[in-house]
Structures are given as structure tokens and as C-alpha cells.
């Protein structure tokens, strides 16, 4: 018998708590796990020895938690170096912890890998498992990431509403979408399109650098045709020189411990684009919104599929820990369309830790400013049903 | 027998289409109404003689429409002068229109009043009825406005999630909320609070001018106590000199035809506040989001009560038109708490047209930076059930 610890790292998502609940409920079935601790604020809580006991959390609390957005144990953006990890291992030893379940993105997979190695060096037989989460959907190996479907649902519903708003009061509307340096979430803004002329009419992804000239020309073409234009732009879009537009705008760009530039939490990119488009095209009504943290932490708007998968991933990590030393849980799609189904498998931490995954070329249209049907087929099962909408203003005049 | 026209004006809401559907379904019961036209883009469509026929829209379409955000007939921000209204009346005469149903805010009530008067002068026996809508909840006479409950639900769910996000990654978070020059919607950001230390911890309303010094001191006090702080700020907040902060920030502030300054569609206020707080308090993590148009046009997130009331208001306008020449539909609360109930009544257009309604003094706490229990009692029935959430990180450490 030994103890286990679970924690959550990086940016919150709408279903990271579902994965946590999966770990908690499966740990109860694991004969070799005694106490399950939750480390508060991830690695930062571990080095400070700040744990709560998750062994006896009530089922009712677990169900509410599984449906709650954000990280129920708190999070951290610390990037542990060797000395930091050694501190962690000493705490693990003191508490007889031999299982480490870490829910996070690729930086967290990397931390998991290092923790597993240093534990080995320090003579602790620690099992270390990574459970994927990110709204950005940029993890390798897995078909998609828990957290993405829920954020995708949010931005799809948002753009459905925003497009109808833009029909009512026409003009150019620019929406800046999260996703860091991958275009997956921006791609999802188009999932709710129902009519031929529904927006977003243009989408710009980090994978396809674009000049202000090209973007303005694209917008002008749509506006000339429809009298309006809705544009979804990734916070991570790059200019043709390869530099992040967002970075260019921030004289003192904030960089986190992992070397990531702070792209969210400011409306600068949206406002810059609106001002540029307004002055270049001479269109009176140009508006811009930055969707911000709403995309990852909105209460009451989970994708059911996403929440179920996140929970399964949490449970599976505990199951893998019975017969394995370390690994990352991944999803494989074994059925498509109405037969959509996933199977879980284990992959090496290194495979997930080192790089991120771009929006696939086959999901981007030839112009580089929209998605393909293949993307809709890929993403719709993750999002689930979207509401239908009606607009009457385009009916024949009498 | 005569024809009728219905249209929608001003900013969209989540239930303005429910009111439209109410007009359409009740017009079918009205023996004296022949064809019901929809004017596309409000008064702008009327002067251009751009109408669609709403008489035979299918029930299925109507139900989807009633659940769709934004204005299904399109909208307009035109402010008709005398010549403009005369053009409208000429179109009405040509089309044998003797009923005018206009869904909008106080500017629309005013338009309705003028249209009714000019029709009289021009010898047209026109019945003109205003149906209230606004997410701002700033119309006089009525207990509350259709559109407010749905927007209130959105911001309540948003702040529930945002507060959990801020627990996970502590710092100062500032959210800029719509509402123009009334604090009703900003007040609603606190409706989802469940725990004593849940945010928003501070709320700033246009009704209570506040200096940067005071706001910074308030934030510091919360941050010193909790290690984090979530702040909801109305887009219409005023400095102590009475001027809009948003206006101060816009060198070339856009003003619409009604003389309203454009407060939405830019992240400038949020970014300004974040920069100020960061430099004044020396707190590393300060983020700001501007919720923007999501608050009024998000697909799939209606308040059920709001949608039902909006529809009733639409139907009632048609019923009033049988025995009255003009008026505005208003709501009166005849039961509170679990017995919440409203009755509809008619008020004069002038009563709604001339002024707006501030957030009531009794709903603002003595410090001017939060709400009272009386506001929760007032607003909760309009929003309906909110999701419950859990956070474990504040449990006792073991």
C-alpha cells in the first residue's frame, strides 16, 4: 500500500475537473492506493506540502465538481527545474506517495517525465502518469484533447450568435480566439454554420501567416458581396515574417515560466485589427471582441462527449498505473460520424512532452482562410449538438 | 381589415425574437389584421419599402426563431426625423398598414410615439405599439425588460467560471460588462455567487462615479485578504467629474444617431484598467476581459422565464391594439420569490420614451462597489436556475 497524489496544471478548461473526478473514483478501486491526496496549485503546492485528502469526497460533490469549469485543485504555471523536482520527491517520500497523476498540457507531460526520472535517481519507485487537457487541442499522439470539445462548443455558439448579430447590424466584426500557437479552436468557430452565407466568413490560423494587406483584401471581398463580414482570428496569428502579431503589439510582452508569450487577457490585437481594417477599407462599422477567459471557464456549458471522455481519461490513468511505471493517456478514434467512438491507449510521456500539434493541413482550405468539410467531420462529434437558429431578414421581399 | 407591420430596433438581445414570434402568433388571432409584414432592418427597411410576409411562417420555424438570439428581421440605429417619418407613413398608406408594432428600447418607444403622431397629422389611422427589449434593463415603468434576464444569465455564468479560473491562477481579473449608462447588467454578474469568498468581489456601476484611487484601494484590500480579486466594471462607469471613463479613452469616440457614445466593441477600457491596476499595485498577474457582444447574442443560452415573458409581451401588444390607439407593454411583478409572477399592463409611449432607469439605489451596497440582497431577490427569478459549482482547493490541508 502507498499513497497517491493528483493535481492540475496550466490553464483551466471546462472539463479538467471531470478528469480529476475520474482519477478520484478509479483510485477507490485500486487495491494498492491508500490515501489519494490532491496537491493544491499543482507543483507549487507539492513543494509547499499543501495537500488535501480526496479519499472521502462525497459522490454528490464529485458530480458537481465534474460539471464545474476551471481547476478544482487550483493550478500553477511554475516550470520545475531539477532542484524544484528534488523538493517534490522529498515531499513524496515523506508522505509515502508512489503515484503521481498530473492533468495538463505538454509542459505538464514534460514535468511528469522529469519527476519520474528524478524519483528514480533519488530511489523512489514513483509511478507518474499524465492526463491530457487543453482547450488548444495541440497535444501530439492523441486524436484530440479533453477540454477542446467544450471550448469548441463555446466558440461555435458564440459565433452563431455573433453572426446573427452582424446580420442585424451589418458591418465588419472581428473575434479574437484563444488557442496559443495552434488554430484548432479558431477552426471550431465555424462549426455552427447553417446557411450558405453564415459567418465566420474568414478564419485566420497561426499555421498560415497572413499579411494585413491579404486580410484586408479578403474582408473587402466578403463585404462587397454580402454587405457584412465576420472574421475569426487566432490570438496566435503570425505575420508573413513569422512573428506573432500579438507579440509585435506588446512592447513588454509577458512571458511565462515555460517561455510562452502571454497572448490572452488583453484586447490589444482585436483593437489593432479593427482600427487597421476601418482605416484601410473605410467601412464605418467595424467592431472587435476578444473572447478571453470565457472560452475556457464558462459555467454550465460543457460538451457532454468531452466531459465523458475527460473522465474516462482520468480513470484510465489510474488503471494504467497498476501495470506500468509511467505514461500519458491518449485517445484513438475507432468510429466516425454517428458511429463516433474512441478507445484509450497509453503513449510515452516523451511523445507528448516535446512538441505541440498544429492544425492539420487537410483541415485548412486552399486559401488558408477557412476550414474544410474534413474538419467539420473531425470536430463535430467532440462538440455534440449545437442549437439551430433562424433568421428571417433574408427571405424574399414582398 | 387592414395590414400590420412589425420590426425590431436597436441592439439585439437573446429574446427579441421571442417577442417577434409573440406578435406573429397573436396577429393570427386578430380578426382585423389581414397581412402581417416584417420590415427588414426596422425603420430603414420601412422607408425603403423592404417587407417580408410573416403571415404564413411555419410553426416549426417560429419555435426555432423564438429560441434564436439577435434580431431575426434585422435592426437599425437610424433616428427618424420628421421627413423620415413622413416617408414611413406614405409607405404605410400605400400598403394599407394600420398597425405598427415596434420592438426596442426607449429610443424605439420615442420613434413609435412620433410615428403615431405624424400618422395622425397625415390622416392615417395608425395604431402604434412599443414592445420593450433591452439587455440593459434601463426602461422606465416596467419592472424589468425582456432581454435582461438572458443577458444576466450569461454574465452570471461567465463570472462563476471566471471566479473559479481566478482561484486556479490567482491575480486580479477585471471584466468589463455591457449596460450602457445603467449598472443593471453589471449587478447581475454577482448572481451566481455560492461561497463567501466567491467573486466578483467588487462591482462598479455608472450610478456610482469612482476614482482610480478608490478602485485601486478597493482592489488592494481584497487582494491583501484573499490573494486574488475579481472585478466587474460597467462599460459606462464614470469618473468623479461625471465623465464616462470610456469616453475619455476614445479620442474620436463614435456617437450613434441617437447621440449615444459607442461603448462596446473595443477592449480599450479593460486594457486601461488592467495597466493602471498593475502599475499602481505592483501585482504581477492582472488580466482584463471585455465581454462584448457575446452578452447579447450567444446561441443556446436563454433564460426560460425571459423568453416566455418576451413572447407574452409581443402577444399582448397585438391584444392591446384591438381597443387602443397606442401604448407600450410593461410588466408588473405580482408575486416574489418562488411565487414570482408578472402581469402585463399598458403604459403611455411617452412614459418609456423620454428617460432611462438607473440601477436602483437600494440594490447598491453602501460602499458603492457591490450589490445588496434585495437585488438578488429582484433579479434571480428573471435569470432562473444557475449551475452549482465546486472548488476543492480551499478545503483544510492535511
What would the average pLDDT of chain A be, to the nearest integer? Answer: 95
Along the chain, the helix and strand elements of chain A come as EHEHEHHEHEHEHEHEHHEHEEHH
Roughly how many Å is the radius of gyration of chain A?
A: 22 Å
Largest interface: A-B, 75 and 74 residues
Largest sheet report of chain A: 7 strands, mixed
The number of distinct β-strands of chain A equals 11
Low-confidence stretches of chain A: none
| Inertia-based shape of chain A | elongated
Please list the strands of the largest sheet of chain A in the order they lie side by side. Answer: 3-2-1-4-5-10-11
CATH architecture of the largest domain in chain A: 3-Layer(aba) Sandwich
Total of DSSP H or I helical runs spanning 4+ residues of chain A: 13
Note the quaternary state here.
homodimer
Total discrete domains of chain A: 2
Binding site for substrate (chains A, B): 134-136, 178-180, 235, 293-296
Domain Phosphofructokinase (chains A, B): 5-318
Organism (chains A, B): Anaerohalosphaera lusitana
Binding site for Mg(2+) (chains A, B): 106
Commentary on this structure:
Two copies of one chain form a homodimer. The first copy, chain A, has 398 residues and is of the alpha/beta class. The first copy, chain A, folds into two domains: 186 residues, Rossmann fold (3-Layer(aba) Sandwich); 172 residues, 3-Layer(aba) Sandwich (Rossmann fold), CATH 3.40.50.460. The first copy, chain A, has 13 helices and eleven strands. A seven-stranded mixed sheet of chain A has the order 3-2-1-4-5-10-11, sandwiched between helices. In chain A, strands 7-8-6-9 form a four-stranded parallel sheet, sandwiched between helices. In chain A, α1 packs across α11 and α8 crosses α10. The longest helix of chain A is centred in the middle third of the chain and has 21 residues. Chains A and B meet through β3, α3, α6, α10 and β9 of A and β3, α3, α6, α10 and β9 of B.
Amino acid at each position: 500500500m502507498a499513497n497517491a497524489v493528483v493535481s492540475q496544471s496550466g490553464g483551466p478548461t471546462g472539463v479538467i475537473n471531470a478528469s480529476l473526478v475520474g482519477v478520484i473514483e478509479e483510485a477507490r478501486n485500486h487495491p494498492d492506493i491508500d490515501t489519494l491526496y490532491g496537491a493544491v496549485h499543482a507543483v507549487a503546492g507539492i513543494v509547499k506540502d499543501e495537500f488535501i485528502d480526496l479519499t472521502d469526497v462525497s459522490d454528490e460533490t464529485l458530480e458537481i465538481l465534474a460539471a464545474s469549469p476551471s481547476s478544482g485543485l487550483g493550478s500553477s504555471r511554475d516550470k520545475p527545474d531539477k532542484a524544484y523536482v528534488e523538493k517534490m520527491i522529498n515531499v513524496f517520500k515523506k508522505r509515502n506517495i508512489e503515484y503521481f497523476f498530473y492533468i495538463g498540457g505538454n509542459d505538464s507531460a514534460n514535468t511528469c517525465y522529469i519527476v519520474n526520472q528524478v524519483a528514480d535517481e533519488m530511489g523512489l519507485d514513483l509511478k507518474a502518469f499524465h492526463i491530457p487537457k487543453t482547450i488548444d487541442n495541440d497535444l501530439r499522439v492523441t486524436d484530440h484533447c479533453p477540454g477542446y470539445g467544450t471550448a469548441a462548443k463555446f466558440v461555435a455558439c458564440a459565433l452563431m450568435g455573433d453572426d446573427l448579430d452582424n446580420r442585424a447590424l451589418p458591418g465588419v466584426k472581428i473575434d479574437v480566439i484563444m488557442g496559443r500557437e495552434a488554430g484548432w479552436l479558431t477552426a471550431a468557430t465555424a462549426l455552427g454554420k447553417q446557411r450558405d452565407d453564415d459567418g465566420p466568413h474568414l478564419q485566420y490560423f497561426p499555421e498560415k501567416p497572413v499579411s494585413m494587406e491579404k486580410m484586408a483584401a479578403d474582408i473587402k471581398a466578403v463585404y462587397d458581396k454580402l454587405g457584412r463580414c465576420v472574421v475569426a482570428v487566432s490570438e496566435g496569428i503570425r505575420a508573413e515574417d513569422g512573428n506573432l502579431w500579438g507579440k509585435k503589439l506588446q512592447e513588454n510582452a509577458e512571458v511565462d515560466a515555460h517561455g510562452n508569450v502571454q497572448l490572452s487577457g488583453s484586447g490589444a490585437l482585436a483593437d489593432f485589427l479593427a482600427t487597421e481594417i476601418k482605416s484601410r477599407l473605410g467601412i464605418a462599422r467595424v467592431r472587435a471582441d476578444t473572447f478571453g477567459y470565457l472560452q475556457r471557464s464558462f459555467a454550465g456549458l460543457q460538451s457532454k462527449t468531452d466531459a465523458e471522455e475527460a473522465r474516462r481519461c482520468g480513470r484510465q490513468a489510474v488503471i494504467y498505473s497498476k501495470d506500468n511505471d509511467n505514461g500519458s493517456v491518449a485517445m484513438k478514434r475507432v468510429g466516425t460520424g454517428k458511429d463516433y467512438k474512441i478507445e484509450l491507449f497509453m503513449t510515452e510521456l516523451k511523445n507528448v512532452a516535446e512538441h505541440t500539434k498544429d492544425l492539420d493541413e487537410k483541415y485548412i482550405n486552399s486559401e488558408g482562410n477557412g476550414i474544410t468539410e474534413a474538419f467539420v467531420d473531425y470536430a463535430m462529434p467532440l462538440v455534440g449538438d449545437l442549437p439551430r437558429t433562424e433568421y428571417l431578414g433574408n427571405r424574399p421581399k414582398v
